[in-house]
Amino acid sequence: MLLYDSPPSGNCYKVRLLLAQLGIPFERRELSVSDRSNRPALLGGLNPSLRVPTIVLDDGRPLAESNAILWYFGDGTKYVPTDRYERAQVLQWQFFEQYDHEPNIAVPRFWLHYKGGPPADSANYFLSTLYKDTLAADSLYSFMTVNIGNDIDGDGKKEIFLPNRHVRSGVASDAAIIILESKSVSTSVERIGNTVPEGYALSQNYPNPFNPQTEIVFQTSRQGFVSLRVYDMLGHEITTLVNREMPAGNYRATFDARAYSSGAYFYTLKAGSYEQSRRMLLVK
Ligand SMILES: N[C@@H](CCC(=O)N[C@@H](CS)C(=O)NCC(=O)O)C(=O)O
């Protein structure tokens, strides 16, 4: 049995812990959580999301999703009850863990560990959402800043998460999180000149390689909806630079990649039926 594993991943830890508790031997293949370039070759065909944990059983069948793996090995042992209501309670906890805890607490903590530090320009952010309507009197709140630096809701502004660092097991009101949203669109797009170009074009970014900013020049020959998005090597969208109706013209977009790690990225311009992608290299 082979577990595709990553040491800092909480989802992987759950699987290693249960297998150890049950005394089930397994082999491990460690994958990096930051450099994901070997994932398609290793996990393609095993797990459509290319994520860890992914386990390959002795008979060759793959299984993904940490909680499905826990259920597979736990069922029939003391870790999964037989009573119908208690089984449903296990699922209740597992869905809570993936839907509420993992993205709001675990992932921001992970980013804090790997990226670190408060935003350099905190004055440019305003309080957008409080995860809990009211903070509870018996919880201790100390919000740590995690600059995820991503435009999560696609409105062109960056969000920052501030999870509470004093989270006690089983105390729901501890799981508070503040979301800050940048006041302005985090990337600038300016029109160059007033001419109306002939045809559509997307230029190679300049400078390239770059750190941390680069400029992407493009032209549109008709008024219409334009999107310019940046993707990582796996095709995951990491930010939206433009997503709006624009008059025909020449434009220069600035991509600020200080929140991202070194590597190759793609940017794609879509306008009407025109679509063009180019590659750029961030070297830190
Ligand atoms: N819902 C999945 C989440 C798995 C997941 O997010 N894995 C992370 C590590 S904790 C990963 O592989 N990240 C790299 C990537 O998304 O490509 C599970 O519970 O197994």
Which short descriptors sum up this protein?
single chain, 284 residues, alpha+beta, Glutaredoxin, Immunoglobulin-like, four-stranded mixed beta sheet, elongated, binds glutathione
Quick summary:
The chain has 284 residues and is of the alpha+beta class. Helices cover 20% and strands 33% of the residues.
Report what the structure shows:
The protein is of the alpha+beta class and 284 residues long. The chain folds into three domains: 2-80, Glutaredoxin (3-Layer(aba) Sandwich); 115-182, no CATH class; 189-282, Immunoglobulin-like, CATH 2.60.40. Helix content is 20%, strand content 33%. It is built from four helices and 16 strands. It has helices at residues 10-22, 39-43, 66-74, 84-114; strands at 2-5, 27-30, 54-56, 62-64, 125-130, 146-150, 159-163, 177-182, 189-192, 201-202, 213-220, 224-231, 237-246, 249-256, 263-271, 274-282. Strands 2-1-3-4 form a four-stranded mixed sheet, covered by helices on one side. The chain has a four-stranded antiparallel sheet with strand order 5-8-7-6, with helices on one face. The longest helix is centred in the middle third of the chain and has 31 residues, at 84-114. Mean pLDDT is 83; it is low at 115-119 and 128-134. Glutathione binds at residues 6, 9, 11, 33, 36, 50-53, 65-67, 98.
